[in-house]
Write a structure and sequence with these properties.
The structure is a homodimer. The first copy, chain A, is of the alpha/beta class and about 400 residues long. Helix content of chain A is about 30%, strand content about 15%. At the A-B interface, helix 4, helix 5, helix 6, helix 7 and helix 8 of A face helix 4, helix 5, helix 6, helix 7 and helix 8 of B.
């Protein structure tokens, strides 16, 4: 046991995967994208937790949401204040049990945490892509994740798992590569955005784009950042991640100073929380990436190619599904998850559905809610590794040149 | 019949109050405000519709919401494209029937449509108030409205009526001046904002305040406007005024150009709608006023002085209430109206409650929904003008010097 992992154990983190190190996979074959452009070459940064078994049948893919990345579990250094974003669910003895599964999580294309994105150098121009990075879709991500699967020497996943925008990637995996995954776990997602969801994204985008420091996305060349716009986008996002009830429980109408100030400084606790969330986000996230992620959300609509018939879109799906929603989630409400469940059932697929009682809103998918974790752990424990695909065939709907 | 009203009749507007003209009331007695400051003198712009009867018992006060004003019904000129903001409900034969009632509507203090506010000249400095205009509360507005009542030679109202922030003024009227109104009609309101409501207001305020063209509220001195910030605030507001269902019905996921563009120009119809609402608002509303209105919303909390006990806060109320909510309103949901109803009942007051089925969200209160208008018309028709206060006594909770 290393000094570092010993310390982690001592500090009560024995169920952590411990210290982890991101790795980089380089791809030199061009990737054709939905938008019509292609990436000549690209890198994907990823982490793995647990051990791949001899049969290569215990690999699980975790897909991240809007502001997530490849660092899903463990710590990068023993001085880290916080573990990866889904450490609550991934680790030894946890619902996604690293004693049994080999877990892979990557930063998606267009991201800002190491994978090729707006901050990367465009090999053609020799300068950072910035706003010239192509718009990527959920399907593009799934194609790139399939290549990562091949790169890792895997022929299929025991399960592909994700929450929110991550859940949309799971749904797309099951449609595009039906032979490459045995189980699909879709948490707090929707089959496509509603007009209201798009509207919130549009206000966030306008906040960023109209910030005078945005410079058409070329803020780096001007040695600046669209701080105000990105802060507003994140503040707004946080309202949609929390439920009204969760905000009431967390902040109520509590005043920060105890009495009304009759001014425009922070007055209520909830204002203080939002400003903190907004300003701290600016230092750790790229505005061009934020814009790309919201567009990937807006465009996701797997039923579109099937005349808006989700049942037809799911016809070739082979994976078994677990769909999970949370009662107080108003960003992607349980009703949106039930749309997925009903379409799967109508299409004759196998699906389990759990609607978890929670007042945490959309954020619940990241939280340690006992019943939620029991459902997830129970489903994972029942996965028969013998059913993991051993030789995934070609995708059902290939983008030319993409795979 | 004048040429103008004849034309209005010909164009099918026979149920309109016709051409109306705003009037200005000047007050030279200082008005002490909740914030501790006072206005040395001020003006209130108002309109009236219908005729005051000989007994002066048929006057009705309409209180406006966040972006409303004194122009509630009729037209200012025959070339006007649109009538006043509540023309659907106010006019001859309409629910608030001007054949029977004398209807008064004013622009609130702090407004930007003629009443004293940030755009007015500060008599002390000789310059526009701008950001130095004092923060006004719902209670301050009610005090100023009471003075307008006296100015008009009225000793009480047959009814005080308002939706949203207007409904909050009605509730405050019933508490502060229990002897001055016979009926209180509170539509699509809440007894106070939730943390989520405050959070949305805070994002709107930050959008305005962080706009580099805001200049600490002194944009007029710099010959500019915080256009971006006010646009974002309004876009966000519109999301909360419409229900998810209403947006789905109105816009769905319809693309403006018919196909996906893979860019950041307007793509979905809902984006086009929001951008239009945002940009057109900038030319007709003042940013400092918008900030003041959101603060009045945040601070409204009549139960606070009674240890958060709304029942106790309503103890002295004499008015009979009609409370109306709309099923798809998520800004101020039916549950928030039921809080008011339950407190009134627990306090032994007379209250009728109607929960109107509608998928229009918060905006429903401005719409011509048949059942809603029948409820409103029925309640108004049953008002016995003999019960209108003939000599309103002093307020229950006087701000020193305010009345």
């Amino acid at each position: 046991m290393s000094d570092a992992s010993e310390k982690l154990t001592q500090s009560g983190l024995s169920r952590s995967v411990g210290i982890v190190e991101p790795k980089t996979a380089r791809f030199s074959e061009p990737l054709a994208l939905d938008c019509g452009r292609s990436l000549p070459s690209y890198e994907l940064v990823y982490e793995t937790y647990g051990q791949l078994n001899a049969e290569r049948s215990n690999a699980v893919l975790i897909c991240h949401a809007l502001s997530g990345d490849h660092h899903a579990a463990g710590f990068h250094a023993e001085t880290d204040r916080k573990p990866g974003w889904w450490d609550s669910a991934i680790g030894p003895g946890k619902p996604i049990d690293t004693d049994r599964f080999f877990v892979v999580c990557l930063n998606n294309l267009g991201g800002c945490k190491g994978s090729t994105g707006p901050l990367s150098i465009d090999p053609v121009s020799g300068k950072p892509y910035g706003p010239d990075f192509p718009i990527v879709t959920v399907k593009d991500w799934v194609h790139s994740q399939y290549r990562l699967m091949q790169y890792l020497g895997l022929s299929g996943w025991a399960a592909v798992i994700g929450g929110s925008l991550g859940g949309m990637q799971v749904l797309q995996w099951s449609i595009t590569y039906p032979d490459a995954l045995a189980h699909a776990i879709v948490i707090a997602a929707a089959p496509r955005l509603s007009a209201q969801n798009i509207a919130f994204n549009e206000v966030a985008r306008q906040a960023i784009i109209t910030d005078p420091e945005f410079y058409g996305g070329r803020y780096a060349e001007h040695n600046t950042l669209p701080r105000r716009g990105l802060m507003l986008a994140r503040m707004l996002g946080h309202i949609t991640y929390l439920s009204d009830d969760a905000m009431r429980a967390k902040f109520g109408r509590e005043l920060r100073s105890g009495k009304v100030q009759y001014g425009f400084d922070v007055e209520f606790q909830v204002e203080s929380y939002l400003r903190y969330q907004g300003t701290s986000f600016v230092d750790r996230f790229d505005a061009n990436t934020y814009l790309l992620m919201t567009k990937a959300l807006d465009y996701f609509d797997p039923a579109q190619a099937s005349n808006d018939d989700l049942v037809a879109a799911l016809a070739e799906v082979k994976a078994h599904f677990l769909v999970v929603s949370f009662t107080s989630d108003w960003r992607f409400s349980p009703e949106r998850s039930r749309e997925i469940v009903r379409a799967l059932l109508a299409s004759g697929k196998q699906v389990s559905y759990a609607e978890i009682e929670s007042n945490h809103g959309h954020d619940a998918f990241l939280m340690t809610i006992p019943y939620y974790h029991r459902v997830l752990a129970g489903y994972m424990a029942n996965i028969d590794l013998a059913s993991t695909p051993r030789g995934a065939s070609s995708p059902v709907c290939s983008t030319e040149g993409a795979v």
